[in-house]
Write a structure and sequence with these properties.
The protein has 220 residues and is an alpha+beta fold. The protein is built from one helix and nine strands; from the N terminus they run H-E-E-E-E-E-E-E-E-E. It has one helix at residues 3-31; strands at residues 87-89, 97-103, 107-110, 115-125, 141-150, 153-163, 182-185, 188-196, 211-218. The protein has a five-stranded mixed beta sheet with strand order 1-3-4-5-6, with no helix packed on it. A four-stranded antiparallel beta sheet has the order 2-9-8-7, with no helix packed on it. The longest helix is centred in the N-terminal third of the chain and has 29 residues, at 3-31. It starts with a helix and ends with a strand.
């Protein structure tokens, strides 16, 4: 047998072995599934020690809107001038009797004698009105207050009650005790002679209309 014939089986065996190896490799490559790339799912749990960046919200920052000032109208009230006190100064000394008329809120002064009389209040006026065809069951009455002061003696309230339908209390006699037309103060006798105006139907006097006529007599 020649040397060439001896090498032929060995060659065939080597080729076969290589073919088997190639076939095995090809088979392995064909059956292996291609590796799929699966994206990693991010979990909401942060790894310990990891720094989580702060999330910036899209909401705009809260701002303070400028508002227009509310204009409140101011009502201005004109000052009412104070009512001037009417003062009657009587320079003549009270030798016996002296009459004086004082409006409501007014003052009569007697500088020589140091006496002052101030007509302060009309507390009642229920006098029967004057007028034709008017008849009343009673004459009614009117009550006033006079504040008196003198040298060495402070202000003292004197109360008077005069009957209705009379113009001069000096003409009255047998006056009931319910009426007080005379008061004494210091060394003076003070009498309410009349209170004007008299009521008329249906009108009645206003507070500014009253005038008291007083008779001041110096007592011995």
């Amino acid at each position: 047998m020649s040397q060439r014939a001896l090498r032929s089986p060995f060659r065939y065996a080597l080729i076969w072995a290589v073919a088997v190896i190639l076939a095995a490799l090809l088979s392995a490559c064909g059956t292996a599934a291609p590796s799929a790339t699966i994206p990693a799912t991010a979990t909401s749990a942060a790894a310990p020690g990891a720094t989580i960046p702060a999330t910036t919200t899209s909401a705009p920052p809260t701002g303070t809107a400028a508002t227009s000032p509310t204009i409140i109208p101011v009502t201005r009230t004109a000052a009412t001038p104070a009512t001037a006190t009417r003062t009657i100064a009587t320079t003549a000394p009270i030798t016996t009797s002296l009459g004086v008329s004082v409006k409501l809120g007014g003052t009569a002064t007697f500088p020589t004698d140091g006496l002052t009389l101030r007509f302060t209040t009309v507390s009642n006026d229920s006098r029967c009105p004057k007028g034709p065809g008017i008849a009343c069951a009673t004459s009614g009455s009117a009550s006033i207050t006079v504040e008196a002061s003198a040298q060495g003696q402070g202000p003292t309230a004197l109360f008077f009650t005069i009957p209705g339908l009379t113009d001069d209390t000096t003409r009255l006699t047998n006056l009931p005790s319910s009426f007080t037309i005379v008061n004494t103060f210091a060394s003076y006798r003070i009498q309410l002679v009349s209170l004007e105006p008299q009521p008329t139907f249906p009108a009645t006097p206003g507070p500014k209309d009253y005038t008291a006529s007083l008779l001041v007599t110096k007592q011995p």
